[in-house]
Design goal:
The chain is built from 15 helices and twelve strands. The strands form two sheets. A seven-stranded mixed sheet has the order 1-7-6-5-4-2-3, sandwiched between helices. Strands 8-9-12-11-10 form a five-stranded mixed sheet. The protein has 395 residues and is α/β, with parallel strands linked by helices. Among the domains are: 7-85 and 202-257, Aspartate Aminotransferase, domain 2 (3-Layer(aba) Sandwich); 260-392, Aspartate Aminotransferase, domain 1, CATH 3.90.1150.10. The radius of gyration is 21 Å and the shape is globular.
Length: 395
């Protein structure tokens, strides 16, 4: 049943995509662990493959369990639809492939997740796609430098791991005037804090492994889009084969129901810890858009709602050695090469997500060897304050 307009995110997260199982009356749908769906006749098969009848065919094409997660995310994003993939990188790859081909040109933000940078450098460049890297503070001017073969612009906001902010409305307005398609990685903000499609982007992309799933128990990616972009994404999932497994789809659909609760708690913890770090004598610099000291705090306040996200990063007096001491002085907080879980985790991006990026390129993007990234969980704030204070005492 379609939801009425105007419902808040917490209500949408619980009810969007939900259906009563017709066979049993269960409000919790089963996991459709099937590779294919049977036809009752040859005529039905012909009508389905011709596109005149809408039904499930094969789980690489679409699956009802995965479709629930897609409908829920699309509703949260305010998008026409969403397409789930086997990983966040599969989602990014399909999104880019849906708009650029060999001989095309794309602008990309310099301050991107390391996996995205590697994909562009090692795969798309080899396929004949020209890539121009642009610093975040120059990104909004990039559409004015478009070439005849320019097709798209890819960005993150907030960025991983330096938490820089892009003015999405200004960027999308300039890109639209230049005829560029804008793709936004919305993993850090989630649809609870930011809606790129409402700002004018064509794609809102997530590593669903992170906040959307939120418990560190699956790998998935999902993209919200509309119109021809949505059609092409669905076709590419079939053609590339990066479909999400139904079991992972069921876990994702269930996890999305608590997304607003989790993200708001994580954001509140992040703001409290960022404020505390900002006045600590052993901390050289804190990157968090919720702080008034952030260079684009005003933009973040305007385009993000209900908080500034659960991610923050900071640099300690003493660089890499101090960062190592801090990380190894933690006991409650786990050292993990991921983020977005209900448990607080820590990472040194120079030695994890950005490890394969050349040192000079890392430093140009602000990823120093001493940069510490914290992914705040939902623990009691006072316990996290004590934990981080104790670790800072070891530096």
């Amino acid at each position: 049943m379609p939801l009425r307009p105007g419902l808040k995110a917490s209500t949408v997260a619980v009810h969007a995509g939900s259906r009563i199982d017709p066979a049993t009356g269960s409000p919790t749908p089963p996991v459709y662990r099937t590779s294919a769906f049977a036809f009752e006749s040859v005529d039905e098969m012909i009508e389905t493959f011709a596109g005149r009848k809408k039904r499930f065919i094969y789980s690489r094409y679409a699956n009802p369990t995965v479709a629930e997660a897609e409908e829920r995310l699309a509703a949260l994003e305010g998008a026409e639809g969403a397409v789930a993939f086997a990983s966040g990188m599969a989602a990014i790859t399909a999104s880019l492939m849906s708009v650029v081909s060999a001989g095309d040109h794309v602008f990309v933000q310099r301050d991107l997740y390391g996996g995205t940078t590697r994909l562009l450098d090692r795969v798309f460049a080899r396929m004949g796609v020209e890539v121009t890297t642009v610093a975040t503070d120059e990104l909004e001017a990039a559409p004015g430098r478009r070439r005849p073969n320019s097709k798209a612009l890819f960005c993150e906001s907030p960025t991983n791991p330096t938490l820089q902010i892009v003015d999405l409305e200004a960027l999308c307005r300039c890109a639209r005037e230049a005829g560029l398609v804008v793709l936004v990685d919305n993993t850090f903000a989630t649809p609870i804090h930011q809606l790129p499609i409402a700002a004018g982007a064509a794609f809102s992309i997530h590593s669903a492994t992170k906040y959307l799933a939120g418990h560190g128990d699956l790998i998935a990616g999902i993209v919200a889009a509309g119109g021809d972009h949505l059609v092409r994404l669905r076709d590419l999932r079939i053609e590339l084969g990066g479909s999400l497994d139904p079991d992972a789809g069921w876990v994702l659909a269930r996890s999305l129901k608590t997304l607003p609760l989790r993200v708001r708690a994580q954001s509140a913890n992040a703001l409290r810890i960022a404020e505390r770090l900002a006045i600590h004598p052993r901390v050289a610099r804190v990157h968090y858009p919720g702080l008034a000291s952030h260079p684009r705090h005003d933009v973040a306040r305007r385009q993000m709602s209900g908080g500034f996200g659960g991610m923050l990063s900071f640099e300690l007096q003493g660089g890499e050695e101090a960062a190592r001491r801090f990380v190894e002085g933690l006991s409650l907080v786990r050292l993990l090469p991921t983020l977005g879980g209900v448990e607080t985790s820590v990472s040194l991006p120079a030695f994890s997500s950005h490890f394969s990026i050349p040192p000079e390129a890392r430093r140009a993007a602000g990823v120093t060897d001493g940069l510490v990234r914290l992914s705040m969980g939902i623990e009691e704030t006072s316990d996290l304050v004590d934990e981080i204070d104790r670790a800072l005492g070891t530096v």
